[in-house]
Amino acid sequence: MKFRQATWRKSNEVLEPTVFELGVLGRGGTKIAEPDPDIISIVGETDELIPENMKRKEINLPGMAEPQVARHFSRLAQMNYGVDSGSYWLGSCTMKYNPKAAMRIASSDRVRRLHPFIPTEAAQHILRIMYELQEMLSSITGLPHYTLQPAAGAQGEFVGALIIRAKHLDEGERQRDEMIIPVSAHGSNFASAAMAGFRVIKVPTSSEGTIDIDALRAVVGERTAGIMITNPNTLGIFESDILEISDLIHSAGGLIYYDGANLNAILGWVRLSDMGVDVAHLNMHKTFAAPHGGGGPGAGAVGVTEDLKDFLPVPLIKKSGNKFYFDYNVPKTIGKIRTFYGNSEVLIKSWAYLKMIGTEGLRKVSSIAVLNANYARRKLVDYGYKVAYGKERPCKHEFVLTLEDLKEYGVRALDVAKALIDRGLHPPTIYFPLIVKEAFMMEPTESDSLEEIDEYVKAMKEIRELAMEDSEALKRAPKNSSVRRLDETLANRKPILTWRMYIKLKASR
């Protein structure tokens, strides 16, 4: 059997072959059923339905028996790492545990077998779930109106920016073409604002890790459309001047956009409306326990104030008596921004999570997340690690270390991250935010127990000691993983983005 070579590999390692490489023509573990005669009698023969130029001349499916298929995908699963595998301190991503009960609900046949074109009369149960989710999000944030269409947080940002733009244009304020964004913001904020037609104005961070108010005052003016702000910010620090910031932007005629990436830190304690927020997106796949990562679907619900409800995307989910329906009567809508109505299975998982955990449960979630982050940060500081900003104030759900001092020993943040892999732990976010040199962005979430946090901290302590004693050992990490270090330069310049399937499978290997 010949394994596929990875051309960007530093060593002579090989990857797990694809099913097309493992397959052997003529071998199989299943049999494709003949077409149902009753269906043919209704819709006609296949030859009559499919145009000649769209018909397959041959089907080159991988020939594998069921045991080989099961073993192949089990091996791939063992090579992977997820929240079910262990601690996942990926800062700014809130990689919390996803309750299996919510997964089972979303996998129900009553949900999965719904066709997108089914009449609303036959889809009342799913519309009710969406409506109830909107109501719960409104209660949590204080923003009364929601759309669940956006497919991810970044698309939610784009929708929010479009709503702000549409609002100003509707009021005849065409000069408002500037969106203010802190330099510590998520990169997608800058992209979303630019895509919506705004000129991005960056504001620096103070020594405390919060927005520099004096710098903000200097850029606010008649061209200000709004500000895109995350609170707590990407440094894990609460913007204690948020009310002053809101007043400053509002008095200039701008709007407050809230990036909901870090909402997990303030659930049940602070509402977005209390901070003066006008429009916000919420990451269902972060804060509300639908799975995050792996290339799967996300969801970025967008909430707005009463003044902005007429600009929301169509359709909106409404209720009349005991019936739920799609409302297209949104007079100033920015239009439709997603096929059908978003990623419904993701939203169902979040609905189930909120139903299970309740109001007091949400307060506990944020409390434990903040407690875990502060405990881990304190322990790491005791072991010699340095906090980038806000050293004298508590963090919220996450914190950012700077590993710049380890460069004295020839060690980078990347080396420490790779060494964590050798210890069976997922590395945190590195080199973000960009304002922190050799950044290590860590978020334990509420999912980790005290013992798991201590295990992670102990590993960090050992790695720091190794960095000062034998830095070359760190540069060889990871050694205990299925994939060793890649040639990063080559991987960026000549990425392998896909694997071309064989046109025709070979009969033997």
Secondary structure elements and pairings:
Blueprint (H helix, E strand, L loop, with lengths): L18 H4 L14 H7 L2 H4 L16 H14 L20 H7 L2 H4 L11 H18 L3 E3 L5 H18 L7 E5 L4 H9 L3 E5 L9 H7 L4 E6 L12 H10 L3 E6 L18 E5 L16 E5 L11 E5 L2 E5 L16 H39 L3 E2 L11 E4 L10 H10 L6 E2 L8 E4 L7 H20 L1 H5 L12 H6 L16
Parallel strand pairs: 2-3, 2-4, 4-5, 5-6
Antiparallel strand pairs: 1-7, 6-7, 8-9, 10-11, 11-13, 12-13
Summarize the structure.
The protein has 509 residues and is α/β, with parallel strands linked by helices.
Could you walk me through the main structural features you see in this protein, from its secondary elements to its overall organization?
The chain has helices at residues 19-22, 37-43, 46-49, 66-79, 100-106, 109-112, 124-141, 153-170, 187-195, 213-219, 242-251, 344-382, 413-422, 450-469, 471-475, 488-493; strands spanning 145-147, 178-182, 199-203, 224-229, 255-260, 279-283, 300-304, 316-320, 323-327, 386-387, 399-402, 429-430, 439-442. The strands form three sheets. Strands 1-7-6-5-4-2-3 form a seven-stranded mixed beta sheet, with helices on both faces. It has 16 helices and 13 strands. Residues 1-13 and 501-509 have low confidence and may be disordered. The protein folds into two domains: 127-357, 3-Layer(aba) Sandwich (Aspartate Aminotransferase, domain 2); 363-493, Aspartate Aminotransferase, domain 1. 36% of the residues lie in helices and 11% in strands. The chain is globular, with a radius of gyration of 26 Å. It is an alpha/beta fold and 509 residues long.
